[in-house]
């Protein structure tokens, strides 16, 4: 087993996103004191723990941000989600560190060194400050990460841990890093023990008799004598992502990078959980404190980020932003299990076409609404207008109905058109010549009786149409065309 | 064989002198202009006496289901992609039945979209003509969105054919957009337009004028790829549709009309008889 601990010392500030300017001295406040300050602020002589007044006196241009514990927690979970791609054994340690078991992913990535490089590159790309620790036990890695070591120096060429070097590093740590009470720390200090190496060198009998049992327990977990079982991190049941846009954004096109990042994050989450979203729920926070919720309904067979981004941007084009957007939240809670894709034996063309249809229908739904897509369906009924209908896609059911023997037109009028009559014959753009008929359809006596005599007629421009005479009201109607 | 070129026109192309011959020797022209060489290889130019377009695309054409029409079209059928205009003024002359055989063949495997048709496509009627109803998609958009909707459907590659209707004249730019979208999406675009649009130049490679004849659909090829246009043919309509029945009042009946009149009169007499005894009793 090989554990890698990643500690994020600047987590509090990085969690606030773009609202913190990296080039300016900034600090995080908690209870009127500095909890954290960035590198530039430290260069100006500030350090965590000093009061706000003192800090302002030392560095008047200091930007102070209040601490947002919930946000930090979400941020750490996002980082854990990222790490989850490299190993299934990820656990959160404290408020600002992750412990990842990496030896089991060695074969997947080729070597530990390559895995480590890729893991670190991912964090560096997003300008996240990381301190690392490595060890055969979680606690060892955790303690070494407090100091911040170079992991590459501890690894041999074959990826195994160089234990003497690791022990040297561990021995040089101060005793205060041990997860025990302050009373034990004081006791160790009064005995003249300053470094961890000296504590580790104590005989076990002394440890058991002279100190609290917590110390012995910690040493056991550190050396691997007892199991250190920690709750594993599991991706949540729902996805929540957020992006802040410092200063606010007025144009929907300027939101594109932020939306793309959120979708990228969602894609990782979906891949890990092997699910697909039913809809994307967006919440836009405006600078004036208002917020607006809207939804992108989806029906996807697989997740394709560029196409989805185009879809969301299409939906945004049709909306007017009432003000400058300060932050975007993305929630996905209705997740369905990803169906394994069935590959076609001979060609993928049909599958591709089905995917293209899904994508097109998603677009149409956003632009013209759900009613914009209809499918033709045959139904069991006597009246022609109910026999063939265009129903919405959601209501479509496969049906197998025997074809009628009588001739039926290719197109039907949406509404019956009453026809005037001259000398007993109907008129439509001139005289109509009745070719064949009547075909009597008498039905719906249980509602409102319909008795119709249908004829195929020819109009003066030589086109064929389908007309009928209502036997009850003696009125002629035009119903369709043999196009 | 020696070719004796006859100069019919002299032009300059990018500063190079260029002679256009009625029977020209290609090597002779190409040596004078390298640009022409490029033009001839890249652009889909039609050249008389050569049939590269025909032979290359013949396999791609969709069988129209009408042997005479297949013969009249140089590619041997409907084009697989791109715009195809059908110009007609009257309704019900068989404008859909012209394309239905090809659509039925396509709908066996692929989808077909009907974008905002003027009338509702009637499922039982289309089913009778062999169309697979499951593959038919009706896309209905408000007038302002129709062009967008058509273009998206054409470009998406989701359908083998897209049918669209336009009532008014569309600008040339829009027609070109539709044609290019159909070509990119590898989709057969059937564009039904009113007859008066015939005068307007159009980027669609295939344009047909549809007219009604007494028992047939008249088709005139206004423009087609791969060769000369102007073919005119008439495709007969199904005889079952044109079957002429005698009007109902001429149908043979078993009782002669005189007898019926007699019945009427006897009924009257009976009524009189019925009342008369009553009177008598009074």
Keywords:
A: 483 residues, Dna Ligase, domain 1, five-stranded antiparallel beta sheet, four-stranded antiparallel beta sheet, 22 strands, B: 282 residues, alpha/beta, eight-stranded mixed beta sheet, two-stranded antiparallel ribbon, 10 helices, 11 strands, disordered N terminus
Distance between the termini of chain A: 76 Å
What string gives the helices and strands of chain B in order?
EEHHHHEHEEHEHEHEEEEHH
| Structure classification of chain B | alpha/beta
Mean pLDDT of chain B: 79
Q: What is the CATH class name of the domain at 3-16 and 68-201 in chain A?
A: Alpha Beta
Low-confidence segments of chain B: 1-7, 52-56, 271-282
Q: Kindly report how far apart the N and C termini of chain B lie.
A: 122 Å
Quaternary status of these chains? heterodimer
Reported for the largest beta sheet of chain A, the result is: 5 strands, antiparallel
The CATH topology of the domain at 3-16 and 68-201 in chain A is Alpha-Beta Plaits
What's the count of strands of chain B?
A: 11
Helix content of chain A: 25-40%
Helical run tally of chain B: 10
Identify the overall geometry of chain B.
Answer: globular
Q: Do you know the CATH architecture of the domain at 3-16 and 68-201 in chain A?
A: 2-Layer Sandwich
Low-confidence stretches of chain A: none
Strand order of the largest sheet of chain A: 16-22-21-20-19
Lateral strand order in the biggest sheet of chain B: 6-4-7-8-3-9-10-11
What does this protein look like?
Chain A contains 17 helices and 22 strands. Among the domains of chain A are: 3-16 and 68-201, Alpha-Beta Plaits; 239-337, DNA polymerase, Y-family, little finger domain (Dna Ligase, domain 1), CATH 3.30.1490; 411-481, no CATH class. Chain A starts with a strand and ends with a strand. Chain A has 483 residues and is α+β, with helices and mostly antiparallel strands. The mean pLDDT of chain A is 87. The radius of gyration of chain A is 36 Å and the shape is elongated. In chain A, the strands form 7 sheets. In chain A, strands 16-22-21-20-19 form a 5-stranded antiparallel sheet, with no helix packed on it. Chain A is 33% helix and 27% strand. Chain B has 282 residues and is an alpha/beta fold. Chain B is built from 10 helices and 11 strands. In chain B, the strands form 2 sheets. An 8-stranded mixed sheet of chain B has the order 6-4-7-8-3-9-10-11. Residues 1-7, 52-56 and 271-282 of chain B have low confidence and may be disordered. Classes of the chains: A alpha+beta (483), B alpha/beta (282). Strand 16 of chain A pairs antiparallel with strand 5 of chain B, so a sheet runs across the interface.
